[in-house]
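Dock 3-isopropylmalic acid; give full complex structure.
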Amino acid sequence: MYNICILPGDGIGKEVTREAVKVINKIAAVNHLVFKLQEGVVGGSSIDEFGIPITDETLDKAKHSDAVLLGAVGGTKWEHLDYKVRPERALLKLRSELKLYANLRPVKMFPSLVAASTLKKEVVEGIDMLVLRELTGGIYFGSPKGIEKLPDGQERGVNTEVYTTHEIERIAEKAFTFARRRRKKVTSVDKANVLESSELWRRVVTKISKRYPDVAVEHMYVDNAAMQLIRNPKSFDVMVTSNLFGDILSDEAAMLTGSIGMLPSASLGDHHALYEPVHGSAPDIAGKNLANPLATILSVAMMLRYSFNLMELGESVESAVQRVLAKGYRTSDIMSEGMKQISCSEMGDKVVEEINKG
Ligand code: IPM
Ligand code: MG
């Protein structure tokens, strides 16, 4: 029996998790597994109900589950609030309380979606890379931080990029371990020509790389990495980088595949795991049954694989998604000429129908 904590969150988060739950239930039914699902409130929905982005009750539910599936948090409604109580804080708190230091964002081109990319077919066809983002350190969490008043009436805003040896070692270990199961190449992205924290990052990654002589390692400055991602994305296998650089580069990498609506993610620690689509709450299309649930459904596939070690079941979800796409079904974000446009809930139904047919 597996305990899964479902945190739909805000906006399209509610719609896409509903479809992912249908997939979880189907997997359970056909494989005679028991998934115990428990829902929690998070983000703007929690602010509306309890005045804070995440309650201890929700945190406890997450901590006592085997895996968390999160939709998305945030929306225009809460943008005027102070930083300390914004919906996004819930996400940061979950990451740090559950110690989810390794964020996996696989970027894979689905053959039937090559036309959806803004880049040329030759450049994007066959992209298969993993962005591995450090998730509980760096400038997101470093101190000092804050906004202070200066005697002359100005204000001063401060954040601090900090990395310790241990934090770099454990994410580097993960990068080389994943690379071993893939094409055996790690690109470590930093800004070591300017930043001391990056100088340490590069030194520690180099040290760890010696334990993996079968894996090739390269170091790249972040500005160059941003350029290489659109110039020659297929040259990457595993890209490992800091929290902030990973936030930026994973959005860029996501867009290579045509839609951020397709990309799943896993955030792993030594004891907990959280799965969520890379996209946000998309307030503009929320409640209209227009969202693409595939990123969340693919996040379920990652959950089956990484949290429950159900490799084949993870694969069966992915291949069901492939087949639905190959049949021409599209949500609006990936729609192209000659394809059949369907809604969020219809897309969920199509994937459920396909599971175990392949
Ligand atoms: C992401 C998001 C978050 C981040 C926000 C919503 C706090 O952009 O998961 O990439 O910056 O990490
Ligand atoms: Mg981001």
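Observed: The chain has a mean pLDDT of 96.
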